[in-house]
Amino acid sequence: MASLWTELKRRNVIRMTVLYSVAGWVLLQIADILFGLLDVPGWGLRLVLGLLLLGLPLVVIFSWVFEMTPEGIKRESEIDRSESVTTNTGRKIDRLIIFGLVAIVAVLLADRFLLMPDPEKPSQVAVQGPAVEVTGADAAADPAGDTQQKSIAVLPFVNMSGDEENEYFSDGLTEELLNLLAKVDDLRVSSRTSSFAFKGKDTSIPSVARELKVANILEGSVRKSGATVRITAQLIDVDTDSHLWSETYDRQLDDIFAIQDEIAQAVVDALKVQLLEPGELAPTVARETDTDAYLLYLRARHTYELGRDTRDDDMVARAIEQYETVLERDPDYALAYAGLSDAYGFQSIRGDLDTHEGYERSREMAEKALAIDPDLVEALLALADIQLEFDWDMEAAERSYLRALEIRPSDAEGLRTYGYFLATDGRYDEAFKYYQKALEVDPMQLRVYYGLAMSYIFSGNFEEMAALTEKLAAHRDERFMERWNQNMTLITLRFKGEWAELIERLPQEPESIGDLQDAAIAYYHTGDEQRAREYLDRMIEIAEEKQYEFSSVAAALVQMGQPDRALEYLEKALQTREVNFPFIRHDPDLEPLFDDPRFLDLLQRAGIKPPKKGSG
Question: What CATH class has 409-475?
Fold first, then answer.
């Protein structure tokens, strides 16, 4: 062995192996940086590593068999030992190794100080797209004057891994930081929907702060490679255009929970706010599982949210499979059960599952989550939705909504869904308050605006509806406002009974249930009963095919003077457990039925209270 080692050194095999390793490491680091900047998929870096590993044994064999001479490369066996120049070659290789080590240090310094955010330089929005510098004019205080100093938005951390598959991880990190900071007393945290509305957009930080009405912004980036992760984060005071705190973390994924805690704690310390538990943030439920299960959960949640937001039924189905994979690894992970509950509820509403089957699956998952963690807000809200939309048990639903809001008072989704519950129950004044609270923490949530608008319209508060549209126009793009104005104008004209103008505003070829309903009622009231019947028949055809929206058919029939047929379709809505059925006791279109014994009997069989006098 001593002789072999001596021969390896004499032939410079050891030196060439070290030189190749150093050169390979430098090349790999440069590729990692460049691939991240150029958005090269993650397999690109793995391909480079694979090629380098394949080349190592070739270098060893080449070094053993061949030797560099003044006349070129020759087989070692053909060279006289007295004429060998391996010693001189070795000194040259030593210099190359030293040069390579210097290159390693240079790459590390460049990665650390040149490619990472500089706390002393003007801030840039941590979203994909061209960076925008903060200017003094942009950093002015919120003109509305309602920005709280102890308020923060967490912008989506940028995925710099060069692999879109890691998007779930950077998004998940952002959401977990939101959840941690939301547990801090006296700190208003903008919700996920509002923060993620700026993802991938070229928007300056002061503009984001003004729209979200926050005084501070937390931004950062994530670079994940295998089991290693680099996270940078910086906290910005928008008014002073200064960095309150900035840090870079190079860790193993096993430390991900600790990194989240460190970032959240540093933000809290920088803002000097009072914690719920002095000196330490309370951990999230996510901490009750291992890292692998947690990463699988982040991927499943990311898939579901994309599928839900884009109405992609296949993606939601894929999310269900991913949640099930999480539970195979950790059968006691409450958040995964809550995620499954949401997904099954979504499939029930979309018609991908039979209503009874879908909601019962959703209930089973919510109850399993609550059996593990009785205070899990996500599961309480899922259960509340089931109790409202399928059980039609208003009292039980309200208890679940209020329990969730007791645990997490500033939860935007809880505030919004409880507002919807109150509107469904005809308690519009209370609904307005909760919708407004939801907008304080989630000003970019479109479902809140729609819920608030419908509550204004159904309560006859058209002036507030107009004011809401005017306010909304300052925060939305032209495309959204075009759709908003179209929808709200049609609804307002119908409930005001301005039929001729409603017909002018309708699409030439109505396709949706809502547009067909508007067309049927409008043409009926203008005396064109033939066209009214055509739109009504099309509406009934869709409802029968999809087995939903029977209550909308009933509303059109009542307005067209056919109360007996309307009751038949309300019976179908009862039998199919239509999601919106509890609202029929407040639907202005159905008001002519409110004193009809058959309508009251229908409500009684459904377990729903009769209409209040003067409702609708």
Answer: mainly alpha
How many Cβ atoms are within 10 Å of 584's Cβ, its own excluded?
24
Radius of gyration of the chain (CA): 32
Exposure b/e, 270-279, CB count within 10 A at least 16 = b: bbebebeeee
Cα angle at 410 between 142 and 146, to 5 degrees? 15
Question: d(Cα 37, Cα 35) in Å, to the nearest integer?
Answer: 5
Give me 64's structure tokens.
């053993």
Instruction: Express as a percent the part of the chain with pLDDT over 90.
Output: 30
Q: Is 216 helix (H, G, I), strand (E, B) or coil?
A: strand
**Whole-angstrom Cα distance, residue 470 to residue 478?**
13
The Cα–Cα gap between 579 and 353 comes to 14
pLDDT digits (tens, 9 = 90+) for 173-209: 788 777 777 777 677 888 777 787 777 777 778 888 8
Q: Which tens digits make up the pLDDT trace of 117-132?
A: 444 443 333 333 333 3
Tell how far CA 236 is from the center of its chain. Answer: 23
Query: What's the rounded Cα separation, in Å, for the pair 181 and 160?
Result: 24
In sequence order, the β-bridge partners of residue 67 are: 74
CATH node for 284-392 = 1.25.40.10
In whole angstroms, give the CA distance from residue 88 to residue 106. 28
- Answer yes or no: same fold for 284-392 and 409-475: yes
Phi, psi (5° rounding) for residue 410? -105, 20
What is the SS3 assignment for 490? helix
SS3 call for 75: strand
Instruction: Write the single-letter amino acid at 389.
Output: E
Choice among 116-125, 154-163, 397-406 with the minimum mean pLDDT? 116-125
The Cβ-side half-sphere exposure at 126, using a 13 Å CA radius, reads 27
Specify the pairing of strand 66-69 against strand 72-75: antiparallel
E strands, 126-169, in order? 148-154, 158-159
The residue whose two tokens read 């032939």 is: 11
CA–CA dist 218, 449 (Å, integer): 26
Are 598 and 567 in contact by the 8 Å Cβ rule? The answer is: yes
DSSP helix/strand/coil, 296: helix
Token code pair at residue 152: 């923060």
- Write down the domain spans for the chain: 2-114, 148-282, 284-392, 409-475
| Of 154 and 105, more confident | 154
Integer Cα distance of 337 and 327 in angstroms? 8
Q: Once rounded to an integer, what is the mean pLDDT over residues 51-77?
A: 73
The answer to whether the predicted template modeling score (pTM) of the entire model surpasses 0.70 is: no
Helices assigned H by DSSP within 311-407 = 313-329, 334-350, 355-372, 377-389, 394-407
Tokens (6 digits) for 463:
């002036």
**468 sits in which H/E element:** helix 462-473
**Which residue type does 338 have?**
A
DSSP 3-state percent helix, strand, coil across the chain (nearest 5): 65, 10, 25
Residue 16: closest CA among 49, 50, 81, 65 = 65
How many residues are listed for the chain in this entry? 616
Q: Which CATH architecture has domain 148-282?
A: 3-Layer(aba) Sandwich (3.40)
- The beta strand positions in 134-277, using DSSP E, are 148-154, 158-159, 188-189, 214-225, 228-237, 242-252
**Residue 561: its H or E element:** none
